[in-house]
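This protein record is not my work; I was only asked to verify it. Where you disagree with what is written, explain briefly why. This is what I was given:
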Amino acid sequence: QVQLVESGGGLVQAGGSLRLSCAASGRTGSIGTMGWFRQAPGKEREFVARIRWSGSSTYYADSVEGRFTISIENAKNTVYLQMNTMKPEDTALYYCAARRFGQNDYDYWGQGTQVTVSS
């Protein structure tokens, strides 16, 4: 089992920055990839960014490329999402997720942290 706890959400003005954290615990040795997702009211959940647990590779959705940065601090089993130049359309509930080695889907999810960007 893997447990994920997000933190760092809040209210920020457009153009501002926010950093989300996701602390992983449990069988972290089984994790191959960590991802961030978000879900806005009335919309489906969408992919934001992902990083290999080793930190060797990252990938971003087009909507956040160049503005958001995903990183990992293995010593703390923590993944971060640095969000800069934020826009009102970034408003959503942000989730981190873990995908174990050999799995096609993310199988562990956090409870989510709310991010609101005011115009």
About this structure: The mean pLDDT is 97. The radius of gyration is 13 Å. Residues 14 and 119 are 5 Å apart (CA to CA).
